[in-house]
Amino acid sequence: KVSDWTSGSFGAAAEGSFAYATTGSPTLRSYTGYQSLTWTSSGTITPTSIPASLRFDMYVVSGGGGGCGGYAGGGGGAGGAMTYPTQSLTVGENVITVGAGGVGTAGGANGSNSNVQIFGGSLLRTSGGGSGGTDRGSGNLNGHIGGSGGGACAYNYQAGSAGITGEGNAGGDGSGYYTVDYASGGGGGKG
User: Fold this and answer.
1) Are strands 16-17 and 27-31 parallel, antiparallel or unpaired?
2) Given CA atoms 112, 113, 114, 116 in this order, what sign does their dihedral have?
3) For a Cys staple, 171 with which of 21, 95, 113, 151, CB 3.0–4.6 Å?
4) If DSSP codes are grouped into helix, strand and coil, which group holds residue 125?
């Protein structure tokens, strides 16, 4: 999910109004003093008229990691999440890419990255969540690093994988050596 919060109104402003077109069917919500657009699939926002003083807070969230198979596969980590405050937009197309979640497989798959490409400016991005750990094949016992890290499998007290600084947290540790409950670690999240 990629969200776009404004620091003011989408309506009239002292130096003009904000007019725009979108693709990807974002949801518009109104709050006291500001409005938001939220994309849950990829799309664009193209301002056609914009006050020079208007600023946007962009919240970019990537796809979560997939869980892993085996007797005691770990959980996938949450997609990376980060706020990019007070961004400026100009007249032109800004491209929003919403990353998909990772598929749950024996070996695990990280989530896909999300980003916002500002027209004529920066690429605002976060990383997909790390997949969980597994005891199968050549899989990683600890899970994989991602926006938030994947949880470890339940094999000899493995540690969960790290999250990316600023985007998320580490996955949980596995508990035991194939204990009765096969206690694997859960994926990390973003607080």
Assistant:
1) unpaired
2) negative
3) 151
4) strand
Residues 131-157: tens digit of each pLDDT = 988 877 666 888 889 999 998 888 777
Whether 51 contacts 16, CB under 8 Å: yes
- Give which of 183, 71, 87 is closest to 135, Cα–Cα: 71
The 8 Å CB, 24+ separation contacts for 154-163 are: 154/71, 154/72, 154/178, 154/179, 154/182, 154/183, 154/184, 155/72, 158/133, 158/185, 160/74, 160/133, 160/185, 160/188, 161/77, 161/130, 161/133, 161/188, 163/77, 163/80, 163/130, 163/188, 163/190
Task: Give me the residues of the chain with pLDDT under 70, please.
Answer: 1-16, 71, 137-139, 176-182
Rounded to 10 degrees, the C-alpha dihedral 27/32/34/38 comes to -20
DSSP-assigned beta bridge partners for residue 143: none
Cα(186)–Cα(190) distance, integer angstroms: 13
Q: Is residue 123 within 8 Å of residue 142, measured between CB atoms? A: no
- The one-letter amino acid code at 48 reads T
The answer for residues whose C-beta is within 8 angstroms of residue 27's C-beta and 6 or more apart is: 37, 38, 40
